[in-house]
Structures are given as C-alpha cells and as structure tokens.
Amino acid sequence: MIARTSTKRPLRAARQTGLSLIELMVALVVSMVIVGAVFGLMSVSEGRKRTTMSVNDINQSGVFALYQLDKAIRSAGSGYSQNWPLTYGCRLNVYLSGNKDQILPLPSRVPAPFDKLATQLGGFRLAPLLIVQNGTPLTTGSSDAIITMAGNAGYGEIPTEFSNTAPTVSGSVVNLSLINTMTFNAGNLVLVADRNNTAGNVQPCYIGQVQAGFTGSVAVQLPLTGAYDASKGLDGNAGSVSATGVAMNLGNVGGGNLPAFGVYGVGANNTLMFYDLLQSGGNGYTAIPLADGVMEMHALYGIDPNNTGNVSWQAPTGAFDAVTLSNGTQTAAANLYAIKAVRIALILRTSLPERAQQLVGNASAATATGVVSPGPLVLFADVPGLTYTRKLQGDEQNYRYRVLETTIPLRNTLLQR
Q: What kind and span of H or E run contains 43?
C-alpha cells in the first residue's frame, strides 16, 4: 500500500495580537483630551499665578510709594515753620555756582514730568506742602504733583536773629551778623529771610552755604560762600535783607543730613517720580523713579485754621490753588498755616494685560469682543463733593487696578498752636 503524502501547508503559528486602526484612533483621542485638560489646568494655574504676582507687585509698589510720601510730608516745614508769617510764600533764590545756573525760583530747565511746573506756578516759593492739581501731564487722565520743603538740621527749628546789622557782600561772600552762630557749621545751607515786609507781603528769601572751615563756637559773623551762592539771585542777593532778618539752618549738603526740597508726581510708564529742587543729592537735573505701577496720584488738603483738632477736607482749588496759596501774601501764608494734613490716593495698575475670562470676577460686564468693562475707580468716596471718579476706556479695561488712600499729618504745622 502506497502512503499518500499530504499537499496541505502546515497551520500557521498562533495569530499575532495587536491594535487595530480604530483602537489606535481611540487611544489618540483619549490622550489628546487628557493633554488638553492638563494644559488647560496649567494655563489657568499660570494665569492665576501671574495675576497674584502682578497684584502683589502693585500692592508692594503702592505701599512703598506711600512710605516715601509719608516720610517727606511728615517733616514738611522743618527748619522754618516757626517763622511762618515771614517764610511761607517767600520767593526762593538759589544759585548753584557749580552749574553756573539759577535753579530757583525759575530754573532754566526741569526734567519731565515736572517741566511745566515752574511756568505754571510762576516760580517756586517756600511752602511746607503744595498740591498742584493736574501738575503732571499724562497721555490719558491727569495726576496731581506734590511739592514738599523741609530742612534737616536737627536744631529744633530755632531761627537765629540778626544783631541789628544788615548783611554785607564782598565778592561772592555774604557776611551775616548774628546774635550767635552756635548752630551753624561749615557746609550748612542757610535760609535768609527778611522781617521787613512791604505792603504785608512776604519778601524774597535766599539760600546760601556756610564757608568751608567755619566753626561757630565764638564767631558772630557767619560767612556764606560756596556752591550755593547767596551773592546772586533773580531778586538780588542776600545782602538786600534788612537788619531785622533771620537765618535758619536747613542742613548740610556734605554731612548726610540733606534738606528735602522736592516734588513728586507720576511720569511715563506709570512711575512715581521725584525731583530734588535743590539738587543737594548730586542728581542734577534728573528725576528719580521711586515706584512703578502708579497710574495716577490725587490729593486733598486737611485744614484746621483755628486749631480745633477737627480737620475738614479741601480740594487744591480756589484760595488753595497752588499759585494762590504760594503768592506771598499774608492771607496765603495763613492758609498754608491752616493745612494740618494731606490725604493722598494712588491708582495702581498691573503691568501686563490679562485675558477677559480672568477679569470677569471683578468686572461688571463683558463685551462680545471679550474686552471686560470694569466699573469706574472711585477716590475719596467718603468725602462728599470731592469724590474723584476715573473711568477706564479701551485697552485700560484689560488690567487690574488697586486704589490706596492714606492721611498724613504735617507734624511741624500741628505743633504750632
């Protein structure tokens, strides 16, 4: 019997396992959903983190800005406020010989954003505090400027009387005959004012520098000569002061206790700026940035003319407009004396715009384009008739804002009873 050979092929090995095209597509879709969810969560988390950090940044900037303003305003008037009838509103004459330039009352140049102030005020006059309404121009909105002036000698603001002898001028040296010179040292800046009022108005005043090497232990002659040259001025020189004048120590340029004559205001890029009117800090004609994120600054006077302890709020307008308030009349000096505090409000804005959905929680409505329309910013809301409302337009609506307000007393004026 012949064996028959099979022509069939051997059975394949067990069929290999794998994923079908449909299974691959399902897995891909599921993975994309998970990745999208994770990405969305990270995006929301990052957005909230950025929001929290930006808000913290403007809060810190605002607190620091108020600290700087508080420090300057509390000391305003130091060194001369006890003689307020003859110093408040006097037209400052300051000639800085190193620059060969008159820097006050009408400086040849002032840096932005304060470059319009000298013209607007008609020159800088001596005052503890002045609020210049809309003093710094902004692209959108407006902002006030604040001028503070304070000495820093640390001698209790006690003025030194002339010894019934008018000053003499010899070249660039102005000699003051004083009843004593114990409170003066070489390099001190000295404010020279006149008691001889004409028609009840405050006379010009002069700032000079005590001669290098001077010691006031015995001498009663105080020589003024140095970088701050009292022998020159737009209104004459310190030699024109009568025999009934007084000299007041304002501090020392080289000794670390600099006088603080400065102006504060909001400049470009939402930055609070400071400019040293006396240029005693060595910065020349340069405005110094203090804090960023400050979009606007506004202020009110707190007045108490009868020293009753009850302060009423007054806008920097009318009799308290900066020009009127510093015009040198006795009425203006009395109004300056009545200012016992200042209330400051800052509008702070984050540096980066945010997505509309991140702002909805603080918004009153959202437009079809996704631009959120937050409600207006309100300052001094508890002061009837003096409330300031800032409406936000266009791209301004895509930022976060904070409003900080504080009341700062004028320590030297409060002590005058």
A: helix 21-74
Given phi > 0 = left and psi -120 to 50 = alpha, else beta, which region is 79?
A: left
Asked if residues 195 and 248 have their Cβ atoms less than 8 Å apart, the reply is no
**Residue located via tokens 């400019």:** 275
- Check: pTM over 0.90? Answer yes or no: no
Q: Which residues contact 157 (CB under 8 A, 6 or more apart)?
A: 78, 79, 80, 81, 82, 151, 248, 412
Asked if the structure places residue 393 within a domain, the reply is: no
Residues of the domain holding 288? 58-343+408-414
Contact 278, 151 (CB under 8 A): no
Domain assignment present for 401: no
Map 329-380 to HEC letters. Answer: CHHHHHHHHHEEEEEEEEEEECCCCCCHHHHHHHCCCECCCCCECCCCEEEC
Give the confidence band of 294 by pLDDT, cuts at 50, 70, 90.
very high
Residue 97 forms part of a structural domain:
yes
In tens, the pLDDT along 151-187 reads 988 766 678 999 999 999 999 999 999 998 988 989 9
How many distinct structural domains can be found in the chain? 1
Q: What is the CA radius of gyration of the chain?
A: 34
**DSSP symbols for 302-324:** EE-TT--S--EEE-S-GGGSHHH
Cα 161 → chain centroid: 35
Which two tokens mark 89? 């509103």
pLDDT digits (tens, 9 = 90+) for 122-137: 999 999 999 999 999 8
Give the max Cα distance, the chain.
Answer: 160
105 in a domain, yes or no? Answer: yes
